Amino acid sequence: MRAISPITPPAGKRPLRCRIFDPFRETPLLAWLFGAGLAVLLEHLLGESFAALVGLAKVPVLFGLMIILSKPLLFPGALLYVAVIYLLPLVTVALLLARPANTAAAALLRLGPAVSVLFHLALFYAVLHFWAEISGYREMTVKFTLIAVLLTLSLNLINGYMGEFSCSHPGFMALGAYGASIFSLSLFVNDPLFGKALLPAFLGPWLFPLGLVGGGLLAALGALLIAIPSFKTRGDYLAIISLAFLFIVKSLLENLPFVGGPRGMGSQPDYASLPVVFAWTAMGVWIMNNYVRSTLGRSLNAIRDDEAAAEAMSVNTRHTKMTAFMFAAFWAGVAGGLFAHMMRFINPATFGVQRLAEMLAMVYFGGLNSVYGSIVGAVSLNLLGEVLRPLELFKWIFIPLLLILVMIFRPTGLLAFRDFDAVRLVQPRSRDRQGGAP
Question: What percent of the chain has pLDDT over 70?
Answer without folding.
Answer: 92
